[in-house]
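Here is the promised in-class demo. Please do not try to memorize the tokens; focus on the logic of going from shape to residues.
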């Protein structure tokens, strides 16, 4: 099978977390993984990014299939269920909203910068070596710590699921996948509605 340049984006995933480990400001680069899937869904009406360009999904496949770190057992059906996927999306967005709010508080001077990475939304780990105070406004650094925490937490969840089940079990309820799927469906519904209205107007 012919390889494409985007088949090597698993390297980007490793690079992202490595850079963030040494300099937390690189966490901002992860916003690409937030915006690009949405842009593909909104303007392309497809999940091309999720299916072909997701470096994290590729990394799970490399580790789980090539290195055989996965038990390769079937992903539990409940992970694909609508209630779980959208429930996790709501939870994830609530955590993202809280992260943005904490960033606002730091920017407004109502809270101080916390140089820590919070794993699984509960365990706070000191991360002082990754940032020297004063390099950028405190709110920029605070967002970096918060966003890296979300990205690292979701990576670890995916790695655990990769080991227990199929390599890309995380993709069953990935918040970005759920959002892009919803957008693609909404786009298709709108397109069909506009097409139907156009046919009705032309008397077809």
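The designed amino acids, position by position:
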């Amino acid at each position: 099978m012919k390889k494409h340049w985007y088949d090597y984006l698993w390297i980007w995933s490793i690079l992202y977390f490595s850079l963030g480990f040494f300099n937390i400001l690189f966490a901002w680069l992860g916003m690409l993984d937030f915006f690009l899937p949405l842009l593909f869904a909104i303007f392309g009406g497809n999940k091309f990014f999720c299916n072909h360009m997701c470096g994290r999904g590729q990394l799970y496949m490399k580790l789980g299939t090539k290195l055989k770190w996965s038990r390769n057992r079937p992903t539990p059906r409940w992970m694909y269920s609508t209630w779980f996927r959208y429930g996790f999306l709501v939870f994830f967005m609530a955590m993202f909203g809280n992260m943005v709010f904490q960033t606002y508080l730091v920017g407004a001077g109502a809270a101080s910068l916390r140089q820590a990475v919070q794993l699984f939304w509960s365990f706070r780990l000191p991360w002082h070596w990754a940032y020297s105070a004063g390099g950028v406004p405190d709110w920029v650094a605070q967002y970096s710590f918060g966003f890296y925490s979300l990205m690292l937490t979701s990576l670890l969840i995916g790695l655990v699921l990769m080991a227990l089940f199929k390599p890309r079990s995380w993709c069953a309820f990935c918040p970005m996948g759920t959002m892009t799927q919803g957008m693609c469906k909404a786009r298709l519904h709108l397109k069909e509605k506009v097409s139907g209205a156009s046919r009705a107007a032309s008397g077809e």
